[in-house]
Design goal:
globular, mainly alpha
Length: 77
């Protein structure tokens, strides 16, 4: 992140959203490196093959968090 971008509230909020999703993935997997790899690289068929990272970057963190909640409850794979 560029030094001048740290004052932009939108970027700060987006960063927080990335962290929320990664933390939720870690909570489910129990393994930080696995969760980060999933977040950055796993194609999610539910989201037309997009990664969680790309979805969050487009403002869809809540959708990814709902997806993770469904996995945690056993409804999605």
């Amino acid at each position: 992140m560029r030094a001048d971008s740290t004052d932009d509230p939108r970027q700060i909020e987006r960063f927080r959203e990335h962290l929320r999703v990664v933390r939720a993935a870690v909570a489910i997997s129990g393994n930080r490196p696995v969760a980060i790899d999933w977040y950055k690289n796993e194609s999610l068929s539910t989201f037309e093959g997009r990664t969680a990272k790309s979805l969050v970057a487009d403002g869809r963190a809540e959708a990814v968090l709902r997806y993770l909640a469904s996995i945690a409850s056993g409804w999605a794979a």
